[in-house]
Queue: 4 jobs
Job 1
Amino acid sequence: MALRKKLIYNTALLTGSSLLMNCIGMAFQIWLVGRIGTAGIGLYQLVCSVTALSATVAISGIRFACTRLVSEELGLENSAGIRGAMRRCTAYGLFFGAASAAILWFLAEPIGFLWVGDARTVLSLQISAFSMPCIALCSAFSGYFTAVGRVWKPTLVHLAEQLSGIALVALFLTMSPEGDIEKSCAAVTAGRLAADLLSLLLMAGVYAADRRSYYSGDEGGLRLTGRMLRIALPLAVSAYARSALSTLQHLLVPKGLKAAGYSADGALSGYGVIQGMVLPVILFPSCIMSAIAELIIPELTEAQVRGDQAGIRQTVASLFRMSLLFSSAVALFLFLFADMLGYVIYNSGEAGYYIRLLSPLVPIMYTDMTVDGCLKGLGQQVWSMGINILDALTGLLLVWWLLPRYALSAYIGIIYFGEGFNFILSVFRLRRTGALGIKARRSAQGTAAQRSPAQPGQRA
């Protein structure tokens, strides 16, 4: 019961903060579209696609590894292991963050000219390189706070990061020439970099104060380094492959649209409408699912360490049903009010059209977030990443083959296929673990039958 209350509290906290930050981010996105235009948004999305790959290298699985490792030590009630795990995780993050920064800095020109095919991205890529160590270390700290159940601390840090980032981006944009999308994109990137630096300073300070609750002690025999590497490295390699394929897919979209007859700026605009305008609206209410997906990882890990298989089945089945109900309600709302949302948010009928077109996909997208969190909590992270790699590879091939022929219609179809394909494979894997399906229902019924009549509300 205490674990359930903690999960509900942390979910409510993360959901409320995510809603607040999403509202702020959406308002800022609307202003940014008006300031740099859809072509500028498209160019920035291309930069984000490359930096997402670089950030994947910087993180290299450390956030999940940190959450899992600290959760295991908590399940074993070993305080000394928690501090030892964090020392190793931060060193790991610093190493990969610095390596990612060096790679992005030195390869910015070849990537911009040859890979992206737009020289206007080079300056922004070079600026982004300095964010990589910050992202890696903040990921390790966030993994720690998720494991120990004190998510309100990184939540406040992320809110401060977002507010400062918006202010700094707005400030830097006032210094860039209006209409110059290269310098506008660089100004946005510079604002994000400054916010990342502030976030790292705040997160490090919060962690330094929090870690005092765990004494040093003797770490002998814990094999923390080996355990960390066995968790992080397979996940990192899988993430590299998936992120590289996803980045290539996004970079091929404007090229495919140009091959279909769009102009260079027209291709960026079409890509920017879907990636930079429509999908943020579609994913806006998903904060509750992403919060649950993150928080369920340490809960399932601790239950797995204790051998509480019945509790795992009951929890996973309940989360699955809740995800389907919530996402179906969101999909219906988006479908009915798509035109109004497009005009109110962006003053764009085109955005409303694509919101309605993608709204039936919401139940699959949102529920897949919960399924992914459950798989990671049960130690199935490599399987989860393997599914994501297969999804990204299939999407890349479809973009390369179909976009030059059918333009944006093909892109919408590819999004549908990829999300559905990923969801089916993920659910199948979750059922294979025994955490979802008929077994879960029978287990829940058996647990209820074994409860004491004097304590009908007590969780088994």
Note: Residues 438-460 have pLDDT under 50 and may be disordered.
Job 2
Amino acid sequence: MEILIWIGGGLSAAGLLGLVWSIIRVVSARKKGLSDDDLRDVVQKVLPYNMAALGLSILGLMLVMVGLMLS
């Protein structure tokens, strides 16, 4: 069951990297001084990746918890 913990940790780390990437993407768009419509477009394009990264992170944390309970 130790493998579940490692896999879950890897998924959580990948999800965290995805969240950091989406934050950096939006912050860099804000620093460019885009108009409200352009900034809204950037946020709408990043949103699915942000939600997928959050889901991946949650899935990884669930795997870690299951691995810990079964150990």
Note: The chain is about 90% helix and 0% strand.
Job 3
Amino acid sequence: MKKIFSFFIVALAFSCGKEKVLQLPEINSSEISEINDVSHAYLFYDETQPDNVDLNRKNLISTTNWLINVDKRLTLKQAIPKIKFLQDKKSNSSHKNKNAKNYFTCHDLNSNNLGFMEFTDVVYQNESLDDYSGVLSNLEDAPNSTAIAFEKNNGIVIASTVLKSIIKETTKDSLQFYLKRCDTVNSLIFLNFNEDLSFQSYIDFKDVVNKTDLKDAKISNKEFIFN
């Protein structure tokens, strides 16, 4: 079993004889600090590539837990297609381990060590989001539903049939307050992320959502990446 103990705020790898640096996204504190039996994939920020992404996946073993190291400077538009590719590669492998999971690697600021965020069951979908009133009308067919859109300027918009309103003045600091207001029986919450968000911002928002103590509402495993 391979264990992860060392801390790297910068991950290093070698490709074609050249050393490359990957800046890990930061998280205030992670509930997961150690994972056994792992393989690594790296998504480097590389301005020499057409999409600014260089994927190194040479040492991935399908039966292990996968640690996906994504440079925090990449946008979701750049990173998500590569992440979906890795998800498909693992799910379509002839050698599977139903207990093996997928994690993003982060720098845990509280412990000054590595931290991990699981995304095994996340299904990324692309959609265009132009009209929030349209989102609210679509949700009317699904009682107790809430759609949260994380904008490219880090603003947050909430369209909720639970709250019966569209809230556009939300900030990251008040997000947990509104999530708890939407915490009703059989309530489903959908997360929508602008494709121009940095991966760091994505981790920031996901961390707030994951750490909100919801009693009844469920966070949908489908995440929508909109333009």
Note: The CA atoms of residues 20 and 115 lie 21 Å apart.
Job 4
Amino acid sequence: MIFEILQIVTEEVNSYFGSNTVSLENIANIEQEGESDTSGVILTLLNTKEEYTLKNHSNNQINGTEVSYRNPKINLNLYVLFSANNATYSESLKSISKVIEYFQGKRVFTQENTTFLREGELSNINNFRFLVDLFTPSFEELNYIWGTLGGKQYPSAIYKVSLIEIERDATLKKGTVISGISNDLNNN
């Protein structure tokens, strides 16, 4: 589901730009692979973090008199980096500004308000909802992030993509619904 969400974000921002300016790549590998001439905006996954506040919900489904028990869904927050790698610094700044403009206008993504190419790997997405918020790290955190990514810093913006639900369609066990409690202790 992580790839699918990031691909949807990439397509949405590209439609706002009016071209295929944004690509889903690892910014740390751009110069290593000899792709230093890659221009445009690069979307990179920085980190995933589980949303612990939603962890203790049970995941049971009742169908008639049968109950299916499953492991709880995993709710993730994704931290993504938009970095501009254009020919000139001023064009990079304009690209990052346009990314920020886009997410200022749209921060909630749902099945109803999002258009994306529903083919191939994205054809199995039926229902989703996620939020995109600007994340501003401290200078120390930003220095650590870019140091981890290879040291060269590009104009960039970091966003937190909230509440990605991941659930495998696997039933742990099945049982029947408890329909009543007997209070007959004398028959034992």
Note: The chain is about 25% helix and 30% strand.
